[in-house]
Specification:
Helix content is about 40%, strand content about 15%. It is built from 30 helices and 25 strands. The strands form 6 sheets. The protein has an 8-stranded mixed β-sheet, sandwiched between helices. It has a 7-stranded mixed β-sheet with strand order 17-18-19-20-21-22-23, with helices on both faces. It has a 3-stranded antiparallel β-sheet with strand order 9-10-11. α12 (about 330-340) crosses α13 (about 345-365) and α17 (about 505-520) packs parallel to α21 (about 600-615). It is globular, with a radius of gyration of 29 Å. The chain starts with 8 loop residues before the first strand and ends in a 6-residue tail after the last helix.
């Protein structure tokens, strides 16, 4: 494997839940993929695979970046298509977690694997060395475990587990592929039951169950205590078990019980009777409709062990405990839990203490170093910090004293002492396990630096651990709203400092300065945020008040025949709720409705348009580096940059229509311009109608690939799979444009518009929708305003206008909509309820 490892074609063996979704993510990454399953006894022998692929199209969250990618998954079966494995560089086995079934499959496929291809098992906890026993000797150096977490598209963690004979070069090559091509965070796990993340994460769940039972706390109260209040996902403990599947949890725990008989905590690798009873009765959690929780209508019920029935959740976190958990100082927070006599505080201290104790004792057997263990839990279970990070942040030696005191008094789940390394590394006393120099590794009894694999040079700012410091380059200019900086390579980088990176007047002023500064002293400019989201759009706080003007009435028009627009407008009210809520929040209308300064808003909108235009016509290339949400004005900045580099998990859209407004930072203008450039036979309308639907329906792209399909991104824009490589690729794109002799685009002197004819065509459909009850009068007004702007106003079809004409139409229409009571009601309602209002 001296040559670079390139996966031209891959195969996934097993079309179950995990196998099908792994195949989906491979095609998301542009990898030709075969999906194997047993043949059906009659009819199409590939029917099992075809059924699995159809299911992928309907799943939420979507495993496919765009539904069309489904056709790139090639169906196959073990009776007819094993020869096709010879063309595969990577074969991933993802069948049922049974040793004998996997072994039989390896024996069957081994003769068909090519001499360089890697064979990997997606097992979640079976021994890789045992599995390797069923693999021919010559293939064992190319065999390993590659454990994806569910769902594979969205979960960042992949555990890479070598066997005793696995070639190091194979592991390095596969890790590089997983990191860059599939966008994953890779941890080298040890071949121990359930590997690293599940071993620690499931123990944490077992410890929580143990202490909950001892404390007499209800399931719903435990979830409130072990969720966001302590930096873990909202699903916390028992909801997570329901989502994963109680039967899956039983299987994972059974693996630990069978394989860890000498473990000091072995007695706790058992499941409580109530959980066993639920599984026996088919109550497996979310997939069966009930588990620990059950949904009845709009109510969420929780199992009450005392009555053995489902009841409305009633557990409440004590106000004093909630207050101490919200303290920002981690030292004070954990100390308060340790010292406070309240049962809820003592429960949380016990859960933390036993997790710290467990991780310290087992570190050497389950992970290469403390960094891998902490990142495994962060990436695989969604915790804000890993166990060792929490411990270190709270005061390493003080917490160690508390743990040892509890061991001595028999309060811990196991009586084994803390290992010696907890107090010193080598001969040096330590104050934690993470530092700038590295993280503690038990094998060398020293701090181990991060991986030196070349792939990690593409990650200038990896996920930071407690004890590490990140310095974001050298400052060029800095204001209260943004910072402009560089890392010595002639590319200026701008990062916003506002909450959720919203765009206000200070950001706009700073952007004008930054672009001008970059034009004078740098070769390119990149907009990149140090953390997601990219931007939730414009913030109009303290910009206007609720005016007294009445909403304009919808003009009368004769009904028109139904058109293709109708099916799209039926979805108008179903625009993504999250996007609409975030759009409302970015407007922050609490002050807007009371301030009375519409003129100031119009000035800000004009300023916004100027910055968008400055990005478009800058003397140097401008690149937007997008990760996460880019809504409204954030999307408009993206549309005006020369190039966008976006992570696959970027959610981009002009969502203003969802709160009764329209894009006014150049978004409508930009679509009108693109329609004119694409016009066939001097008619922009065939393109414009699609762009109109996108804007009027507040469509949110749920991946960067879908953003291309919706034309928020341009065909030349780049999609990267790994968020940590985003800045590296964006800077490379910026410098490539500069090296190519960049010149700003010529300003279009004449933009052909659809004019009055285009407006009338769209309005006829809107009237039809209004008469049919599909939209309200205010929906009609919003749609009409969008049509008016995008068609260039009430002028002759085919007329030529300039950009300023379209920008002025945007500003005017935005203010007119903002002045209406119904738009203000929509914004206020969305902020209050999180849902859009139809009025």
């Amino acid at each position: 494997m001296s040559n670079p490892f390139i996966v031209r074609k891959a195969a996934v063996l097993g079309a179950g839940v995990m196998g099908a979704q792994i195949a989906a993510h491979l095609v998301n990454a542009g990898v030709e993929t075969l999906l194997f399953e047993l043949p059906t006894e009659s009819g199409n022998p590939n029917a099992n695979v075809l059924k699995a692929v159809e299911k992928l199209k309907k799943q939420e969250p979507a495993p496919l970046s765009v539904i069309d990618r489904a056709i790139c998954i090639e169906p196959a079966n073990y009776e007819q298509h094993l020869e096709k494995l010879r063309d595969c560089d990577l074969v991933i086995e993802a069948i049922a977690e049974r040793m004998e079934l996997k072994s039989e499959l390896y024996e069957k496929i081994a003769p068909y694997l090519n001499d360089q291809g890697i064979l990997a098992s997606n097992t979640s906890g079976l021994s890789i060395n045992q599995l390797a026993g069923a693999v021919p000797e010559d293939i064992r150096p190319r065999f390993c475990g590659v454990h994806f977490f569910n769902p594979p598209r969205y979960m960042y963690l992949v555990e890479l587990i070598p066997g005793e004979q696995t070639d190091q070069n194979v592991l390095d090559a596969l890790e590089s592929f997983l990191v860059t091509s599939l966008g994953k965070g890779v941890i080298r796990a040890k071949d121990t039951p359930n590997f690293t993340a599940n071993r620690v994460g499931v123990f944490s769940m077992l410890a929580t169950m143990h202490h909950a039972l001892q404390s007499g706390l209800s399931f719903d109260l435990v979830d409130k205590l072990t969720g966001t209040l302590i930096g873990r996902p909202k699903s916390a403990t028992f909801r997570t078990a329901d989502v994963v599947g109680l039967d899956v949890l039983v299987h994972v725990v059974q693996t630990m019980q069978d394989g860890l008989v000498d473990d000091p905590w072995h007695v706790h690798y058992t499941l409580p009777d109530w959980l066993q009873r639920l599984v026996s009765n088919g109550a497996l959690g979310q997939k069966s409709g009930k588990g620990v929780y059950q949904k009845q209508g709009k109510d969420i019920l929780v199992l009450n062990l005392a009555t053995d029935s489902y009841e409305l959740a009633q557990g409440e976190v004590d106000s004093e405990i909630e207050a101490l958990l919200k303290q920002k100082d981690p030292v004070a927070r954990l100390a308060a839990l340790h010292d406070h006599p309240h049962p809820q505080a003592q429960f949380l201290w016990a859960v933390h203490r036993d997790l710290f104790h467990y991780c310290a004792v087992h570190l050497a057997s389950i992970a290469e170093n403390t960094r891998d263990l902490d990142l495994a839990i962060r990436w695989g279970f969604g915790w804000e910090q890993g166990p060792f990070e929490i411990w270190q942040a709270a005061g390493w030696n003080t917490v160690a004293d508390w743990i040892e005191a509890d061991i001595a008094t028999g309060k811990t789940m196991a009586a084994v002492p803390l290992p010696a390394w907890v107090r010193s590394v080598g001969e040096k006393e330590i104050k934690g396990v993470h530092a700038q120099a590295g993280s503690y590794a038990p094998v060398t009894d020293s701090l181990q630096p991060r991986s030196a694999l070349p792939v990690y040079r593409r990650q200038p700012f990896p996920d930071r651990l407690v004890g590490e410091e990140t310095v974001y380059g050298e400052t060029i200019l800095e204001t209260d709203a943004l910072r402009m900086w560089h890392t010595g390579d002639q590319v200026a980088i701008v990062s916003f400092k506002t909450k959720k990176h919203t765009i206000d007047n200070l950001v706009l002023q700073g952007m004008q300065q930054a672009i001008t500064e970059a034009e004078h002293h740098f070769r390119a400019l990149v907009i990149w945020q140090t953390e997601s989201p990219f931007s939730l759009g414009a913030n109009l706080q303290k910009a206007t008040e609720k005016p007294k003007t009445e909403a304009p009435q919808a003009p009368s028009a004769p009904p028109a025949p139904p058109s293709a627009f109708e099916k799209f407008f039926k979805r108008f009210q179903k625009a993504t709720q999250t996007a609409v809520l975030q759009a409302a929040r970015s407007l922050d209308m609490a002050d807007v409705l009371m301030a009375g300064k519409l003129a100031e808003v119009e000035v800000m909108i004009a300023h916004f348009q100027q910055v968008s235009q400055h990005l478009r016509y800058s003397l140097i290339p401008t690149v937007a580096a997008v990760d996460g949400l880019a809504l409204g004005g954030g999307c408009e900045f993206v549309m005006h940059c020369d190039r966008t580099v976006a992570t696959m998990e970027s959610y981009i859209g002009l969502v203003e229509a969802g709160v009764g407004l329209l894009p006014a930072g150049g978004g409508c203008k930009e679509f009108a311009l693109r329609a004119a450039r694409n016009a066939i036979d001097d008619d922009p309308f065939p393109y414009l109608k699609h762009y109109f639907q996108t804007v009027a329906m507040a469509q949110l792209a749920k991946s960067a690939e879908q953003a291309k399909a919706l034309h928020y991104l341009k065909p030349a824009d780049v999609v990267v799979m790994n968020r940590l490589e985003l800045l590296y690729v964006a800077k490379a794109q910026a410098l490539a444009l500069a090296e190519a002799g960049y010149r700003p685009p010529l300003r279009p002197r004449e933009i052909m518009v659809a004019g009055a004819t285009g407006i009338a065509t769209i309005k006829s459909t809107l009237v039809n929708m209004l008469e049919g009850g599909f939209i309200s009068e205010h929906d009609y007004l919003i749609g009409s305003k969008i049509a008016h702007v995008m068609c260039g106003g009430d002028i002759v079809a085919g007329s030529r206008v300039d950009e300023e004409w379209l920008l002025k139409l945007e500003r005017t229409a935005f203010i007119e909509l903002l002045a209406t009571e119904k738009t203000q009601d929509r914004i206020a309602h969305t902020l209050k309820t999180g849902k859009s209002l139809r009025n």
